[in-house]
Batch of 2 targets.
Target 1
Amino acid sequence: MGEMIRATGLVKRYQKVEALAGLDLSVQEGRVLALLGPNGAGKTTAVRILSTLLKPDGGSAQVAGVDVAADPDGVRARIGLSGQYAAVDEYLTGYENLEMVGRLYGLGKQRSRERARELLERFDLAGAGDRPSKTYSGGMRRRLDLAGALVAEPPVLILDEPTTGLDVRSRQQMWGVIRELVSSGATLLLTTQYLEEADRLADEIVVIDHGRAIARGTADELKSQTGGERIEVVLTDVADRVAATAVLQAVAVGEVQADDNGRALTAAVDGGARALSGVLARFADDDIDVLDIGLRRPTLDDVFLSLTGRATADEASDAAATETTEEVPA
Amino acid sequence: MSAGPARAVTDGWIVAKRNLIKIKRVPEVLVFVLISPIMFVLLFAYVFGGAINPAGSVGYKEFLIGGIFAQTVVFGATFTGAGLAEDMQKGIIDRFRSLPMSSAAVLVGRTTSDVVYNILSLIIMALTGLLIGWRIREGVLDAAAGFLLLLVFAYAISWVMAWVGLLVPSVEVIQNASFIVIMPLTFVSNAFVPLESFSGALRHVVEWNPVSTLTQAARELFGNTDPRLPVSDAWSMQHPALYTLLWVVLILAVFVPLSVRQYQLSSSR
């Protein structure tokens, strides 16, 4: 089939706010695309348009070759959607939820029951399958929701922030499940706020901001733009700042960043652990004492900083406003 | 959105079953739904029963029951609106919207499951009525027709409140919104006081109010009318069952498409 998701020039406005300002996307069959961006960047809006929950104000989109505007039901029959807020009925048991979704996909009574049991088993929910989903933990509810998206074995899966709000263990578990799906050949579009998540799951990443794609590429390509890992240093004595900066600058990709009072320094490096041990040796030679030093993976903030020159946190307030508008169902 | 009345019925039934499961899981809701009709029957019979005695031999209790039945099933429609307003705020609605199901199914399901509530509350009210001296004085078939008419009319009003439920932003608003519609509808009628107590223009309103004709039809079918009371010569009161059914058809013809349209609109904004 080739291209399974295609969006061209998507525009969506909420009063004055432009949630999407001409977004283009393309996902080939069997590939995973991650839409990476901070809150309010337009990720959820894009997902809702592709899954026919929302009509765009401009542009067009096709999923599995079917146009979302011309044949929304055709699209619905070919996608599985799992949202940021688990779309499960809290009074129904896990089994009843899945059986109902199967029936509404038109699978028939027998098949719906089989699928419900299969999926509960597969998502490690068999033991809880006959309990109302109200009693589930956040991670279980999210897995049930994802199972709901898979009931009809749709060729295209759309996952909106599948791990936001989950604890570390549930997140790891969710990643495992998603990787399994991908290896079975599904085409997947997922949105995330975590660079690490996009890195682990996606073949290709589109970074979006203010409803527009600001960078595209593989995780490696993005990281080479951003620099790889970060060395973070907190100095014992601010007086060492100049000397320490010089040491870091020798191994850094781009400028060494300092916080406001100059005690915490951050340098993007390519060599990872090797660069870190080199820095430690130089610090020892030069008698520079540190309170804390460590290596960390680049975050979305780092990607943003290098792409836009500003941190994502600056937008927290207007982002929150946009996100609220997006979520109002009526 | 998915078309086809057949899918609307099958998908609607699946959603209705989901709504009914909630009754099983949260039986407290049911208790309150069923206690209020009992309260209505007892309060009106014993509090106002002494003060209002319009129907001579038949007695106020007997006169009252038809009115309470009508009032209660009409009030029950608030439930439809509230249930739907609640649905629209929940995550599950996103699941429904992303499925290739009939776009009328959520509405059909909700109005259908509320018929079950109404059947239960009619049974409870009838039993309470029988305990305090209400009697069915016509045939069983007539009485069955009376109950059926009450259910059909309630179903139509459910669709009005479904539409209201889709318009309001939250469940809290629906309670007030429904009072504005339902209070005058049931109180400017012959449900609690005889038609004769209204005069002038208001009397015409009462005569042509479908809640009056529903009440009148129920009284006639249960055999609770008093032959000594003057009979209204308005066409609506002469043919109360037929006139009520005409309203049912009219309401459904307007509010089914209106509600489905509103559901689709609120889905795609």
Target 2
Amino acid sequence: MAGESGGECNRTNAFVVSARKRTMQKVAKKAGESMLFAVASFVAVIVLFIFYFVARDAVPFFQIRGFTEFFTSSNWYPADDPGEFGALAIIYGSLMVTFGSALIAVPMGVAAAICLSDILPFSIRQYAKPVIEMLAAIPSVAFGFFALVVLAPLLQNNGGPMLMWAWWILVSPFMLLTVIVLSDLLTAKIIEPKRRQQMHIFLLILFSFLSIFMLFKVGTVLYGIQILSGTNALNVSIILSFMALPTIVSVSEDALQAVGRDIREGSYALGATRAETILKTVLPAGSSGILAAVILGIMRALGETMVVWMASGNSSQIPEPWFNYLQSIRTLTATIAGDMGEADQVTGSARFHVLFAMGLLLLVISFVSNLISERIVVRQRKILSGQ
Amino acid sequence: MIKKISLFVVLLAVILSMTASAAVTSLVLDGSTTVGPIAKTFAAYFTKKYRVPVNVSESGSGNGAKSLINGSCTIATMSRAMKAAEIAAARQKGVNPVASIVALDGLAMVVHPANPVRSLTKAQITSIYRGTITNWREVGGPNARIVVLQRESNSGTEESFKELVIGKGVQITGSAETQSSNGSLKSRVSTTLSAIGFLGHGFVDGSVKAIAVNGVFPTVAAVKNGSYPVSRPLYFYTNGQPVGVVKQFVDLPNSADGKRMITELGFINR
């Protein structure tokens, strides 16, 4: 009898929870939630704290030296007595390599993401994506070592031919496209089919010759270039673009995947070709995600320190002319890394605080660009959802 | 998983206890990359002979001074003398830096082995680093722009170069490239045809060419008798007069074994 009643009790227990157990569950739920909340807010607080502490040590610099010198002069002699703290060339160097790496990494990364998500068969994609993501696992000091020991001498010894081949390989597909599209457009207005065809062929041949001539001409100019020092903005831009690539590819591929099969099939159902589907349906639909990927990649390039410290040459100068990627430059991150050792209160406070001013500037740049990208993403989402 | 975590905790505890007892049973050296090879060789020798662990890090002379002032190292290795400001800061923290000379080091001006230039005067070197001479043609070389290499501001070698060659208060041109160690500067010079840079004498090997300064090549004899114009002493700095194990270590350069190691590394006994 006792056993029977015990079994009864157990059976009911499985469905109806005793009051004590219910409070226990409630407490556990509250505890879990508050712990998650604490962790989440902890991260936010850390960001605020970083901002606060960097700003706290950056402000004294502007109090001592003012804003004009820092932003307008490119004389960087922090170790002298009295020191000069013109960071214009350094800020310019940072922006220059970031722009350069974006110029290489963004088209390549987005193209690779499209290829992965819409063109390659699933079986290949399964292997290709992890391989690309593996690039992110290579430590930056290894990239820096490669840039310094392999790429820099290579650029010095074979810089001209390398530039020429890069020009040919990168530009000829675009040229081909332009030639075809241009001759199509120019002959579109001719009504008579036979004449149009003749004209079309004539223009195709003409433009092909023109573009090959141009490719060849610029190629020979590039071939003649002698790169004096391999540790320059170009070297750093190339390496940084490799470092930004996995982020851009991986995140934008996820964004393109998220667009969904139904939208693609809708596009095909309307009679669009694969190219039209990718260009006019999938890309616009995934554009906010791609933008986020690009911003992440650019931030990676802007914040990277080890590679630029090893391979940029670290000359505090604005190249001459200003777009010359073949001269060495110096970036904000590398300056902070390189000058931090000697600079503390012992050796004069402006020299110490100027590095924090640079850190604050980097923080502000990434904060602003994050904000802008967030805005664009939100707006894009609104447009796409038809609001 | 738990096993891993416990392993990690044990490791952490070991590391912590090591750093905590550092002052008593082990030596911590920090500072110049130039003194680095000597410090590391001495450390290996010392650990083997006296069973005292020695940690060596190379973060630049300035950092070495800082570490000594902050009490995070027992011996600061420096390729320049402490500055007045650093000594003042040390005094303020109750640290009394005492120098002892380890060895002498010539600062060699180095170029690519294929560069025909064999000798430069101090004035020419100064003009090159100020950016008033920009082509090798102007100093008897081929028609090529000079790639000027210097060290970062942490470096005692950079400090010594400024003091001994171009003079204090002269600004090095903004187009000069900055390298973060003797090793990377050497690798840049050995791969760049038109580069010029400066290295500690111990770092010069067949991959670069040391040139004469004011007509004198940086040989051991020339540094020792003072005829080579760009040489300097290398220091061990301790907090107060060294005693016990620290004294044993600091006195190594005076022993026969110490002298042999210094010579083998390409430095010069005082």
